[in-house]
Gamma-glutamyltransferase 5a
Amino acid sequence: MIKKRVEASPLCEIFCNKNKTVLQMGETLRYPRLAETMATIAKHGADAFYTGKISQDLVKDVQDAGGTLSLEDLASYQARVTDPWTVPLGEYKLYIPPPPAGGAILGLVLNIMKGFNLSPSSVEGEQQVLTFHRFAEASKFARGQKKSVRDPNFSSGKEAPRLIEDDFADRIRSMIRSNASRDPAYYNFTPSVDRQGTTHLSVLAEDGTAVSVTSSINRIFGSAIYSPKTGVIFNDQLLDFCGIADRMTAGEQPPSSMAPSLLLSQSRGKTLVIGASGGSLITSAMALTIMNHVWFGKSLHDAVSAPLLYVDANNGLNFESGFNERLREQLLERGHVKGAWQYFFNVVNAVTKEGGCISAMSDLRKLGKAAGY
């Protein structure tokens, strides 16, 4: 899928050999234009990008490709700095990015699951199917609330904050039946499009400073169009409005599943820096990793590597390769419908510090490796 997308797009100029086939593992990728752009920004600062020569080259390449970006658009852009939202999770506090990022959806899933008093025994014996059934149901309800996550500068701002309130999680939890699933309408489902994409980095510094950062050009390789003069690949971020928002306004930022997060426990002196890539799979991947590590007692390696259970845009349950076969059958017996999702691009990167012990895990699904000094 990815190979064909690259070979049929202008990106082949970067990622293909002279014979127009995608570079193979071990071959050298040369990207001099982007290197020059990054070096210029490093030397001259952000103004070089927004108002300097880079902006002129970038805008011309966008317009030559049929886009409408203007010099004024770049010059007037302002990054927003906002405080994180906080969700208490027992002895931990979860710090998440507010809308239009996907932190509130992640917080809702974990807040619902928190009320089931999970422990390592929750994934043993017959309790395991009940726990994963509840997780699937919580994910369905959370997916039904995605319409509440919008740019706060273009919405009332009242719907999203309730998603992380205990009263709301309690109400949703009371609607979960232990032995059956329901039709999509029960979860307030609206048909939408599943996404793939993004990249994530989790960092823990020597002085304890922690950074969790997710970036995205939306789908894999974004719009599949790039700027020959700057090397910048253009995003297709507006696609995130499709199937979720009923309208969009000029200047509005689209909703996103991205949810770079921190978990802090003062009682244990523990920090967990975590985030994920994978588009629509981000919420499930992060929620299950956090549950596996914090509540089920798994090592960071095992928590990140555990096979994923994912609820798709059609209310179907999708099981990553390696998912327990008997557990899969038991979940389907409770009325869940099997989905047809094929591509599990979920990738979690996480770092923990507890006392003087530091552990890091970069997801093996993307051949990741943790780096330290």
The chain has a mean pLDDT of 93. The first strand starts at residue 85 and ends at 89. The radius of gyration is 21 Å.
